[in-house]
Amino acid sequence: MATHLAAKTVQGKPGTSFHLKVELDPRWGAAPYFISLWVDGEADLGDLDAFLRDIWLECCGHMSSFRDTKHESRGGMFDFFHAQELMEQGKIKKYEQLMETSKGELPMSRKIKDTLKTDQKLEYQYDFGSTNQLLVTVMDHYKIKADKPIVLLSRNEPLAMLCASCGKTAAETLCSVCYGYEDEGIFCKKCAKKHTKTCEDFADYAEMAIVNSPRMGVCAYEGGSIDMQRDGIANPKTAT
Q1: Do 127 and 182 share a structural domain?
Q2: Distance between CA atoms of 165 and 144, rounded to whole angstroms?
Q3: pLDDT of residue 211
Q4: What range defines the domain where residue 201 resides?
Q5: Counting runs of H as helices and runs of E as strands, what totals does the chain give?
Q6: pTM for this model (two decimals)
Q7: Is residue 211 part of a domain?
Q8: 129-163 burial, b for 16+ CB within 10 Å, e for fewer?
């Protein structure tokens, strides 16, 4: 991808763009989900937020935030007064930005070109209750415009997961009550019917789709609205 993007600089329109890798923050666990993006510098963090919601996260309109991993909070009031100084200096202009800066958050209105640089890392959180925390890494930047505000370059294929009950057939559904680490609580169609008889919650509300997202099984997440052909289950023939 880096070679491909570098080649585009020969004929690309002058501007600024960034190659980003987004994955589950390793401090919050390990999962083989990733996406690579080519983002135009004129886009803002709100555009990136919307894209991440649409491809991986959106379920109930939860709040979200970006935060520079190098930000060190020294306490709420200290950060608030520091942000207030920035406001007085004209570096931030709106009350919302004041509150965001006081918590170390980056304003969603800030343009990508004014925020990112090569090797920078951002923390991204979606839903401050059942939280998904992602890590956004700036792989490189280019002096050309991206083809679109945000271009999806690559994404992991749907994971091949076997039914936790029979261990023979690809899983097609999960129980949000029983689902956890080591692929527990995921079932093929046949075993899902058996699970209904032993788990009242499964039949009532806990049956959920298996999707290609780190938010699988969380809250009311049903899947994304971008790149939907890769958002289902793996081909049963490839499950191992």
Answers
A1: no
A2: 51
A3: 93
A4: 173-238
A5: 6, 10
A6: 0.82
A7: yes
A8: eeebbbbbbbbebbebbbeebbbeeebeebbebbb
Lowest average pLDDT, out of 38-42, 200-204, 233-237, goes to: 233-237
How far is Cα 180 from Cα 60, in angstroms, rounded to an integer? 21
Residue 168 lies in a domain: no
Tell me the average pLDDT across 83-91.
Answer: 62
| 92 and 193 fall within a common domain | no
Q: Which of 128, 155, 182 is the last residue of a domain?
A: 155
Q: How many CB atoms lie within 10 A of CB 168?
A: 11
Is 204 part of any domain? Answer: yes
CA 183 – CA 48 distance, rounded (Å): 30
Give the separation between CA 66 and CA 111, rounded to whole angstroms.
13
**147 touches 5 (CB < 8 A):** no
Bridge partners for 155 per DSSP: 35
Residues 234 and 144 in one domain: no
Residue 48 to residue 138: CA distance in whole angstroms: 13
Length of the chain: 240
Region 95-122: mean pLDDT is 77
The shares of helix, strand and coil residues in the chain, as percent rounded to the nearest 5, are 30, 25, 45
Q: What is the percentage of the chain residues whose pLDDT exceeds 90?
A: 61
Helical segments of the chain, H only:
2-8, 45-52, 76-88, 95-102, 189-198, 200-201
Shared domain for 230 and 200, answered yes or no, is yes
Q: What is the mean pLDDT of the chain?
A: 85
pLDDT for position 101: 47
Beta bridge partners, 124, equal 66, 134
How many Å apart are CA 23 and CA 47, to the nearest integer?
A: 18
